[in-house]
Protein backbone atom coordinates (compact mmCIF):
# COMPACT_ATOMS: atom_id res chain seq x y z
CA UNK A 1 0.00 0.00 0.00
CA UNK A 2 2.80 2.38 0.88
CA UNK A 3 4.54 1.80 -2.48
CA UNK A 4 1.37 2.67 -4.35
CA UNK A 5 1.01 5.91 -2.36
CA UNK A 6 4.66 6.75 -2.97
CA UNK A 7 4.25 6.15 -6.69
CA UNK A 8 1.21 8.41 -6.76
CA UNK A 9 3.16 11.12 -4.91
CA UNK A 10 6.11 10.64 -7.29
CA UNK A 11 3.81 10.87 -10.31
CA UNK A 12 2.19 14.01 -8.87
CA UNK A 13 5.61 15.61 -8.33
CA UNK A 14 6.73 14.60 -11.82
CA UNK A 15 3.56 16.04 -13.37
CA UNK A 16 4.14 19.33 -11.53
CA UNK A 17 7.75 19.33 -12.64
CA UNK A 18 6.64 18.67 -16.20
CA UNK A 19 4.26 21.64 -16.06
CA UNK A 20 7.07 23.81 -14.72
CA UNK A 21 9.41 22.67 -17.51
CA UNK A 22 6.72 23.41 -20.09
CA UNK A 23 6.27 26.86 -18.56
CA UNK A 24 10.01 27.58 -18.76
CA UNK A 25 10.12 26.32 -22.32
CA UNK A 26 7.22 28.60 -23.33
CA UNK A 27 8.87 31.56 -21.59
CA UNK A 28 12.04 30.98 -23.61
CA UNK A 29 9.95 30.65 -26.77
CA UNK A 30 8.29 34.01 -26.04
CA UNK A 31 11.71 35.53 -25.38
CA UNK A 32 12.81 34.27 -28.79
CA UNK A 33 9.78 35.92 -30.39
CA UNK A 34 10.57 39.23 -28.65
CA UNK A 35 14.20 39.10 -29.79
CA UNK A 36 13.10 38.30 -33.36
CA UNK A 37 10.73 41.30 -33.38
CA UNK A 38 13.49 43.57 -32.09
CA UNK A 39 15.84 42.14 -34.71
CA UNK A 40 13.39 42.94 -37.50
CA UNK A 41 12.96 46.53 -36.29
CA UNK A 42 16.69 46.90 -35.77
CA UNK A 43 17.48 45.60 -39.26
CA UNK A 44 15.07 48.16 -40.73
CA UNK A 45 16.66 51.00 -38.74
CA UNK A 46 20.18 49.84 -39.62
CA UNK A 47 19.30 49.64 -43.32
CA UNK A 48 17.74 53.11 -43.21
CA UNK A 49 20.78 54.54 -41.44
CA UNK A 50 23.22 53.06 -43.90
CA UNK A 51 21.05 54.26 -46.78
CA UNK A 52 20.98 57.75 -45.23
CA UNK A 53 24.76 57.82 -45.02
CA UNK A 54 25.06 56.64 -48.61
CA UNK A 55 22.68 59.37 -49.76
CA UNK A 56 25.01 62.09 -48.51
CA UNK A 57 24.97 64.69 -51.25
CA UNK A 58 27.88 64.04 -53.58
CA UNK A 59 28.55 67.78 -53.81
CA UNK A 60 29.21 68.00 -50.09
CA UNK A 61 31.44 64.97 -50.20
CA UNK A 62 33.44 66.42 -53.10
CA UNK A 63 33.77 69.69 -51.16
CA UNK A 64 35.20 67.77 -48.26
CA UNK A 65 37.68 65.97 -50.45
CA UNK A 66 38.72 69.15 -52.31
CA UNK A 67 39.72 70.88 -49.05
CA UNK A 68 41.76 68.20 -47.28
CA UNK A 69 44.27 70.66 -45.79
CA UNK A 70 41.78 72.27 -43.46
CA UNK A 71 41.95 70.60 -40.04
CA UNK A 72 38.23 70.81 -39.37
CA UNK A 73 37.34 69.19 -42.67
CA UNK A 74 39.88 66.43 -42.13
CA UNK A 75 38.20 65.81 -38.77
CA UNK A 76 34.82 65.69 -40.54
CA UNK A 77 36.14 63.14 -43.03
CA UNK A 78 37.50 61.04 -40.14
CA UNK A 79 34.16 61.22 -38.31
CA UNK A 80 32.30 60.28 -41.46
CA UNK A 81 34.68 57.37 -42.06
CA UNK A 82 34.26 56.27 -38.44
CA UNK A 83 30.48 56.26 -38.85
CA UNK A 84 30.78 54.00 -41.90
CA UNK A 85 33.08 51.66 -39.97
CA UNK A 86 30.69 51.61 -36.99
CA UNK A 87 27.76 50.82 -39.30
CA UNK A 88 29.84 47.97 -40.74
CA UNK A 89 30.44 46.54 -37.24
CA UNK A 90 26.75 46.90 -36.47
CA UNK A 91 25.94 45.00 -39.67
CA UNK A 92 28.36 42.22 -38.75
CA UNK A 93 26.74 41.71 -35.33
CA UNK A 94 23.29 41.79 -36.93
CA UNK A 95 24.37 39.05 -39.33
CA UNK A 96 25.67 37.04 -36.35
CA UNK A 97 22.20 37.27 -34.76
CA UNK A 98 20.67 35.86 -37.92
CA UNK A 99 23.21 33.02 -37.91
CA UNK A 100 22.08 31.83 -34.44
CA UNK A 101 18.38 31.72 -35.32
CA UNK A 102 17.74 28.05 -34.57
CA UNK A 103 15.27 27.06 -31.86
CA UNK A 104 15.18 23.62 -30.33
CA UNK A 105 11.97 21.69 -29.86
CA UNK A 106 11.61 19.30 -26.90
CA UNK A 107 11.37 16.15 -29.01
CA UNK A 108 10.10 14.97 -32.35
CA UNK A 109 6.53 13.68 -31.78
CA UNK A 110 7.26 10.48 -33.71
CA UNK A 111 10.29 9.72 -31.56
CA UNK A 112 8.38 10.62 -28.40
CA UNK A 113 5.60 8.21 -29.37
CA UNK A 114 8.06 5.40 -30.02
CA UNK A 115 9.84 6.14 -26.73
CA UNK A 116 6.55 6.17 -24.83
CA UNK A 117 5.69 2.69 -26.08
CA UNK A 118 8.94 1.31 -24.71
CA UNK A 119 8.56 2.96 -21.30
CA UNK A 120 7.64 0.64 -18.47
CA UNK A 121 5.81 3.15 -16.30
CA UNK A 122 4.22 6.56 -16.29
CA UNK A 123 7.06 7.70 -14.06
CA UNK A 124 9.65 6.75 -16.70
CA UNK A 125 7.66 8.49 -19.41
CA UNK A 126 7.26 11.68 -17.40
CA UNK A 127 10.95 11.64 -16.52
CA UNK A 128 11.91 11.31 -20.19
CA UNK A 129 9.58 14.15 -21.24
CA UNK A 130 10.90 16.36 -18.44
CA UNK A 131 14.46 15.66 -19.58
CA UNK A 132 13.54 16.61 -23.17
CA UNK A 133 11.96 19.89 -22.05
CA UNK A 134 14.86 20.69 -19.72
CA UNK A 135 17.49 20.15 -22.40
CA UNK A 136 15.56 22.11 -25.03
CA UNK A 137 14.90 24.99 -22.62
CA UNK A 138 18.53 25.14 -21.56
CA UNK A 139 19.79 25.19 -25.15
CA UNK A 140 17.19 27.78 -26.18
CA UNK A 141 18.19 29.94 -23.22
CA UNK A 142 21.83 29.84 -24.33
CA UNK A 143 20.83 30.64 -27.92
CA UNK A 144 18.66 33.56 -26.79
CA UNK A 145 21.47 34.91 -24.60
CA UNK A 146 23.85 34.81 -27.55
CA UNK A 147 21.33 36.52 -29.85
CA UNK A 148 20.57 39.20 -27.25
CA UNK A 149 24.28 39.85 -26.72
CA UNK A 150 24.96 40.22 -30.45
CA UNK A 151 21.91 42.46 -30.86
CA UNK A 152 23.04 44.68 -27.97
CA UNK A 153 26.49 45.08 -29.52
CA UNK A 154 24.93 45.83 -32.91
CA UNK A 155 22.76 48.51 -31.29
CA UNK A 156 25.74 50.13 -29.58
CA UNK A 157 27.66 50.28 -32.86
CA UNK A 158 24.59 51.62 -34.68
CA UNK A 159 24.05 54.39 -32.13
CA UNK A 160 27.75 55.30 -32.16
CA UNK A 161 27.65 55.37 -35.97
CA UNK A 162 24.58 57.61 -35.96
CA UNK A 163 26.18 60.01 -33.47
CA UNK A 164 29.40 60.07 -35.48
CA UNK A 165 27.51 60.68 -38.72
CA UNK A 166 25.30 63.41 -37.25
CA UNK A 167 28.31 65.09 -35.68
CA UNK A 168 30.24 65.01 -38.96
CA UNK A 169 27.30 66.58 -40.81
CA UNK A 170 26.81 69.19 -38.10
CA UNK A 171 30.48 70.22 -38.06
CA UNK A 172 30.60 70.25 -41.86
CA UNK A 173 27.51 72.45 -42.14
CA UNK A 174 28.72 74.87 -39.45
CA UNK A 175 32.12 75.09 -41.18
CA UNK A 176 30.49 75.76 -44.54
CA UNK A 177 28.21 78.44 -43.02
CA UNK A 178 31.16 80.17 -41.39
CA UNK A 179 33.04 80.12 -44.69
CA UNK A 180 29.99 81.56 -46.45
CA UNK A 181 29.42 78.46 -48.59
CA UNK A 182 26.51 76.05 -48.78
Protein described:
It is a single chain. The chain is mainly alpha-helical and 182 residues long. 87% of the residues lie in helices and 0% in strands. α1 (2-54) packs parallel to α5 and α3 (71-99) runs antiparallel to α5. The longest helix has 58 residues, at 122-179. The chain is rod-shaped.
- Percent of residues in helices comes to over 70%
Helix segment count?
Answer: 5
The helix/strand class is: mainly alpha
Global mean pLDDT: 78
User: What general form does the structure show?
Assistant: rod-shaped
Q: Uncertain regions: pLDDT < 50 for 5+ in a row?
A: none
From the N-terminal CA to the C-terminal CA, the straight-line distance is 94 Å
The counted number of beta strands is 0
Our estimate of the beta-strand percent is under 5%
- Biggest sheet, in brief? none
Question: Helix and strand string, N-terminal first?
Answer: HHHHH
Describe the oligomeric state of these chains in a short phrase. single chain
CA-based gyration radius: 28 Å
Amino acid sequence: MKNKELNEVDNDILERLLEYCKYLYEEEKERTDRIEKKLNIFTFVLGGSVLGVLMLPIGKLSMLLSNPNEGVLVFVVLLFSASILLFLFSSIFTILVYKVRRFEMPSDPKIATIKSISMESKKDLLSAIIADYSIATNRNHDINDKKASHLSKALIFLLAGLVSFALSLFIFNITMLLKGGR
